[in-house]
Amino acid sequence: MHIEKNVCDSLLGTLLADPHKSKDTDNARRDLAKLGIRHELHLFEDGNKLMKPAADYTFSEANRRKFCRFIRSVKFPDGFASNLSKNVAQNDSRLLGLKSHDCHVIMQRLLVVGCRSLVNKNIWSTIVELCTFFKQLCASTVNVSDMVEAQKQLVLILCKLERIFPPAFFDIMIHLVLHLPEEAILGGPVYMRWMYPFERYLKRLKDYVRNAAKPEGSIAEGYVVDEALTFCSRYFDDVETRFNRPDRNDDGMHPTRQLSVFKSQCKPLGKQSYVELDNNDRDKAEFYILNNSPELEPYLNEHKQELHVRLREGCLNINEVHRTEFAGWFFEKIYAMHRMQASEVTTELLSLSSKTNMVVSSYPACIVNGVRFVTHDRDVRLRTQNSGVSVPGTGQEMFYGQLQQILEFSYLNGFSVVLFRCKWFKCDSKHMVTENNITSIDINGEAYKDDQFILASQAKQVFYVADPSRGPNWCVVQHVKHRSIWDITDDGLSDIDLLQHNSSSNFTLFVDLGNVQEINLLRRD
Question: Which pLDDT tens digit goes with each residue over 207-232?
Answer without folding.
Answer: 999 999 999 999 999 999 999 988 98
